[in-house]
């Protein structure tokens, strides 16, 4: 439940420091005077610096691009306030030996901290829990002062914290103890992505995931950026084609459009298409060579013609030139409507699966939302002779349930680490957390371990693993979420 807060003033801080607090890069500020814990105030980005060092020496190189951008956005007449904060703790620091460790946990260079300590006897270090405003507040520039009065009372809530309570607590503990950062190499990678992420969607996605991993963000994970896959939404429409909806399009062209999108779909699922052979009048519509032979016919319209099974049998024989090979090949008819009794009987006799365009579209969307989730050999088991839509729907549901289980395991690992404060978790600990959650299905410790190992593969990289002498002594740690399709 969120609380409402009224405030009347704002703390003036260097604009780059305010931006670092809003981005989750900082959880502390260096005010000019001591701030009482519990005090609440807006964050005023000012054109000031703590010492006389140039910005290139004041901020660490990994943060310098953000700092320069924040300074470039300053206005000489007005200030844009985007957040407010509550002071959780304020320390006085005067130990020169601790400055290097402090620098590694903040955005300031050791040189900047040393210069600050030379200018005054203490560095005031205020731990701030930061919350975003629903709308930025614009106010006139105040050239001086530690705190400045707001033009009017500001009513805010704590509904949008920059960092969750657990992440803030973990960051605060490390900072109070001046423990070194766990993953400095990831911080360097994130810095390298700053400019690239503005123009490259995949870099932007990776940048967001790294920030979550480093504890700089509590945002929900970003779903993978897909290439242009708008054609997926046309599969069912092209298959259920009617003359009334087609403009200046012949029956031949409508059928060809559907053949093309079906071939694209099967290739997207992982089949190897024989592009040396094309369909068209008198030709076999589909021929796939890997991972197993598949021949097929595509029929766009309102229903599948009765002679489609015989047509597939004849064209498949002509194309493969081998009855034995054709008998072993998967045979698939894709078209709209409910098959007639005659077509169903023929399909069952010749071992042909019939699938509606809607079912194919669902399969392709599954593969799009969860890349490589469709196992073509397992799918083959559900392509039963006759109408196979219900069977394929069972397969799709099975895959989605397996993905949900893995998401539940990840959630349990993440929650255990947040609540316990431990950086690593045993299988037993995760199993206990999983059993207490509202999980889709129960898992034995051994089954849960197998899923954690799967999720720690370099090809998935959802979980980190420290291998022990046996499976019970393995240790795991959370890396990133597995977003579920809504």
> What is the average of the pLDDT values?
81
Low-pLDDT stretches: 221-226
Biggest β-sheet strands, sense, barrel: 6 strands, mixed
User: Strand order of the main beta sheet, please?
Assistant: 2-5-4-3-1-6
Number of E-type strands: 15
Into which percentage range does the β-strand content fall? 15-25%
Helical stretch count?
18
- Shape, per Cα inertia axes: elongated
Distance between the termini: 25 Å
Q: Estimate percent helicity.
A: 40-55%
The rounded Rg comes to 30 Å
Structural class: alpha/beta
Describe it for me?
Helix content is 42%, strand content 20%. With 486 residues, it is α/β, with parallel strands linked by helices. The strands form three sheets. Strands 2-5-4-3-1-6 form a six-stranded mixed β-sheet. Strands 7-8-9-10-11-12 form a six-stranded mixed β-sheet. Strand 10, helix 13 (341-349) and strand 11 form a beta-alpha-beta unit. Helix 10 runs parallel beside helix 14 (357-369).
């Amino acid at each position: 439940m969120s609380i409402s807060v009224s405030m009347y003033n704002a703390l003036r801080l260097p604009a780059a420091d305010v931006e670092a607090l809003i981005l989750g890069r900082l959880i502390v500020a260096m005010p000019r005077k001591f701030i009482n814990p519990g005090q609440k105030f807006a964050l005023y980005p000012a054109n000031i610096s703590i010492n006389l060092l140039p910005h290139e020496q004041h901020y660490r190189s990994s943060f310098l691009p953000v700092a320069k951008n924040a300074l470039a956005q300053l206005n000489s007449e007005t200030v844009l306030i985007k957040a407010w904060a509550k002071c959780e703790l304020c320390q006085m620091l005067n130990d020169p030996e601790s400055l290097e460790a402090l620098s590694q946990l903040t955005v300031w260079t050791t040189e900047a901290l040393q210069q600050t300590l030379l200018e005054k006897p203490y560095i005031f270090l205020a731990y701030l829990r930061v919350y975003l405003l629903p709308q930025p507040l614009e106010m006139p520039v105040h050239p001086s002062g530690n705190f400045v009065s707001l033009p009017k009372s500001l009513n805010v809530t704590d509904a949008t914290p920059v960092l969750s309570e657990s992440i803030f607590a973990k960051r605060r503990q490390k900072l109070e103890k001046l423990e070194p950062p766990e993953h400095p190499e990831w911080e360097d990678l994130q810095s390298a992505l700053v400019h690239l992420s503005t123009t490259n969607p995949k870099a932007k996605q990776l940048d967001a995931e790294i920030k979550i991993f480093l504890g700089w963000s509590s945002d929900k994970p970003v779903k993978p950026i897909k290439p242009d896959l708008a054609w997926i939404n046309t599969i069912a429409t092209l298959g259920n084609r009617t003359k009334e909806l087609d403009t200046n399009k012949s029956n031949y062209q409508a059928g060809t459009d559907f053949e093309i999108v079906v071939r694209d779909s099967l290739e997207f699922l992982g089949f190897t298409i024989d592009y040396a052979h094309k369909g068209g009048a008198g030709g076999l519509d589909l021929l796939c060579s890997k991972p197993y032979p598949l021949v097929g016919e595509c029929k766009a319209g309102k229903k599948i013609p009765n002679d489609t099974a015989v047509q597939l049998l004849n064209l498949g024989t002509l194309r493969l030139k081998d009855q034995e090979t054709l008998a072993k090949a998967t045979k698939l008819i894709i078209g709209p409507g409910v098959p007639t009794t005659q077509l169903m009987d023929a399909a069952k006799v010749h071992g042909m699966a019939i699938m509606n365009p809607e079912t194919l579209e669902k399969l392709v969307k599954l593969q799009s939302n969860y890349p490589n989730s469709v196992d073509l050999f397992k799918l083959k088991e559900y392509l039963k002779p006759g109408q196979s839509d219900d069977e394929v729907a069972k397969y799709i549901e099975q895959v989605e349930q397996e993905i949900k289980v893995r998401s539940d395991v990840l959630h349990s690992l993440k929650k255990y680490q947040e609540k316990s404060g431990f950086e690593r978790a045993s299988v037993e600990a995760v199993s206990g957390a999983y059993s207490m959650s509202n999980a889709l299905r129960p898992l034995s410790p051994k089954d849960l371990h197998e899923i954690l190992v799967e999720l720690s593969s370099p090809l998935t990289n959802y979980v980190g693993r420290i291998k022990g002498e046996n499976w019970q002594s393995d240790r795991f740690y959370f890396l990133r979420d597995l977003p579920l399709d809504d």
